[in-house]
């Protein structure tokens, strides 16, 4: 939905990493939750990745294959980029064994980013669930660094339990920041957990919000089960589909519109998405 096609970098030049992975060094690894780690990564040539918030890369490890992973950091934060990776299977499990100094392959950045020119000047509702905070964090950091380009910004985030809240220090800084209004909730807080925040689904944070539907854009990134419920609440508040942006996940292989693994009817999630405006996809079978 933005002006950046899948194989083009933000400076308008063609990406040379369309088919060939480029070697990148893991600079640091830290634990985010029991199942998710944050990888700080630098291209071996020292150049910036050239991504925009919402784009993804294909991460490869020799002998283990490739996986699409969203870039979790903003391009405004320098040449090192960050990937938040959940241990899901073979490649991501192997990735979790790596540490600083190890090498991974990167193709990309791919896909359409969040359409920044569409978001600029608008009030933003940035809503994520679970691992969806990783791609949204890239946009949140961008908004933090270019605060003057956006209106009021509200961040809503839901995790399954307190220990699964991603980027805990950063989330706390957003809660304390005057720039953001921030609501965080967990599905459940186990007995004895050191947690005094809200308990309930992320959808429960929407009804009390007051916002002007004519100048607000909502961006949603989360697990598939979250979309319909969140969209329902937003529509009840008067937000039209043309003012709701979603980022979708599909099984992917090539990442560049060649293999057909990621199709949603006539669209390729890798090349036409993963970011879509709701009115572009809501009537497509299986989109949500
Ligand atoms: C555009 C995009 C962005 C993504 N961003 C992130 C991210 O920032 N962080 C992150 O941790 N993960 C992200 N994912 C999901 C990630 O790509 C998968 O978890 C990964 O491919 C699993 O690879 P694997 O080899 O470890 O698992 P496999 O061994 O291939 O599979 C393990 C399990 O994961 C399932 N799985 C594999 N791929 C997907 C998928 N795309 N969607 C849902 N289930 C899948 C398989 O069906 C299987 O049940 C993203 C996916 C897409 C399409
Ligand atoms: S992943 Fe191959 S066409 Fe989208």
Task: Describe the structure concisely.
The chain contains seven helices and 15 strands.
Structure description:
The two termini are 17 Å apart. It is built from seven helices and 15 strands. The chain has a seven-stranded mixed sheet with strand order 10-9-8-7-11-12-15, with helices on both faces. A six-stranded antiparallel sheet has the order 4-3-6-1-2-5. It has a two-stranded antiparallel sheet with strand order 13-14. The N terminus is likely disordered. Strand 11, helix 5 and strand 12 form a beta-alpha-beta unit. The chain is an alpha/beta fold and 288 residues long. It is globular and about 50 Å long. FE2/S2 (inorganic) cluster binds next to loops. Flavin-adenine dinucleotide binds next to strand 4, strand 5, helix 1 and helix 3.
| Biggest sheet overview | 7 strands, mixed
Strand order of the largest sheet: 10-9-8-7-11-12-15
Query: Span from first to last CA?
Result: 17 Å
Give the helix/strand class.
alpha/beta
Question: What is the CA-atom radius of gyration, in angstroms?
Answer: 18 Å
Estimate the helix proportion, in percent.
10-25%
Strand content: 25-35%
Number of helices: 7
Low-confidence stretches: 1-7, 9-14
Bound molecules: flavin-adenine dinucleotide, FE2/S2 (inorganic) cluster
Mean pLDDT: 92
User: Which geometry do the CA atoms define?
Assistant: globular
Order of helices and strands: EEEEEHEHEHEHEEEHEEEHEH
Number of strands: 15
- Name the assembly state: single chain
Which key features would you list for this structure?
288 residues; alpha/beta; 7-stranded mixed beta sheet; globular; binds flavin-adenine dinucleotide; binds FE2/S2 (inorganic) cluster
């Amino acid at each position: 939905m933005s002006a950046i096609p899948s194989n083009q970098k933000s400076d308008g030049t063609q990406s040379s990493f369309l088919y060939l992975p480029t070697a990148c060094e893991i600079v640091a690894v830290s634990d985010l939750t029991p199942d998710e780690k944050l990888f700080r990564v630098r291209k071996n040539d020292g150049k910036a990745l050239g991504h925009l918030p919402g784009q993804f890369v294909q991460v490869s490890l020799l002998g283990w294959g490739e996986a699409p992973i969203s870039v979790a950091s903003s391009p405004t934060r320098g040449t090192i980029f960050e990937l938040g990776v959940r241990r899901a299977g073979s490649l991501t499990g192997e990735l979790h064994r790596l540490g600083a100094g190890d090498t991974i392959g990167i193709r990309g950045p791919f896909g359409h980013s969040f359409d920044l020119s569409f978001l600029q000047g608008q009030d933003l509702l940035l809503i994520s669930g679970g691992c969806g905070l990783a791609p949204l964090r890239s946009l949140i950091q961008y908004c933090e660094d270019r605060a003057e380009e956006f209106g009021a910004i509200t961040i809503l985030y839901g995790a399954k339990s307190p220990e699964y809240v991603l980027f805990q220090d950063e989330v706390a800084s957003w809660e304390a920041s005057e720039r953001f209004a921030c609501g965080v909730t967990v599905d459940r807080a186990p007995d004895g957990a050191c947690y005094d925040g809200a308990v309930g689904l992320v959808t429960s944070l929407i009804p009390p919000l007051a916002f002007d539907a004519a100048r607000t854009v909502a961006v949603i990134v989360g697990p598939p089960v979250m979309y319909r419920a969140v969209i329902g609440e937003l529509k009840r508040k008067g937000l039209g589909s043309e003012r709701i942006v979603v980022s979708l996940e599909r099984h992917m292989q090539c990442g560049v519109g060649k293999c057909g693994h990621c199709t949603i009817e006539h669209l390729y999630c890798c090349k036409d998405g993963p970011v879509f405006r709701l009115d572009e996809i809501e009537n497509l079978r299986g989109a949500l």
